[in-house]
Amino acid sequence: MNSNGNTKFLDRTRSLRGNFKRRNGHDIGLERVRKEVTKAMGKPCRYCGVHLTLDNLGLDHVVSKEDGGNHTWDNLQFICKQCNGTKGSFSHEPFVALLEIAEQYGVRDKLISRLRAANLMFGGR
Ligand SMILES: [Zn+2]
Predict the structure, then answer these.
(1) For the chain, which end, N or C, has fewer CB atoms within 10 Å of the first or last residue's CB respectively?
(2) Is the pTM of this model over 0.85?
(3) What distance in angstroms lies between residue 111's CA and the mean position of ligand 1's atoms?
(4) How many angstroms is it from 91 CA to the middle of ligand 1?
(5) pLDDT tens track for 3-28
(6) Domain range holding 111?
(7) 16 CA → ligand 1 middle, Å
(8) Strand, helix or coil at 58?
(9) Full 3-state SS string of 6-22
(10) Are 58 and 78 in contact (CB under 8 A)?
(11) What pLDDT, on the 0 to 100 scale, is given for residue 121?
């Protein structure tokens, strides 16, 4: 990693930790964020398959806060920002089920754009 890449990594992981803390009132730890980001980079987003990078990754609750999910790493995952914005406050299982049903009815893209718009409007997550 060159020095620019390293600076970007340091900044991005710092802001991931800060944003999480602000949003959830819980400190997931800078060193741990850096370790987990390093592991996640280059892997595919579990929902759309896009390769995760410093620019596109987002930190997500597998079981959402609304559904009682906690802030520990066994309930956190990195997915792409796009899918994070679509998934909003859905937990993993119902989100996947919803996408599958929408797929069967040929309205997957429509559902995704509606969910994304709603989450942008209401700040759901
Ligand atoms: Zn994705």
Answers:
(1) N
(2) yes
(3) 15
(4) 15
(5) 677 999 999 999 999 999 999 999 99
(6) 3-122
(7) 17
(8) strand
(9) HHHHHHHHHHHHHHHHH
(10) yes
(11) 78
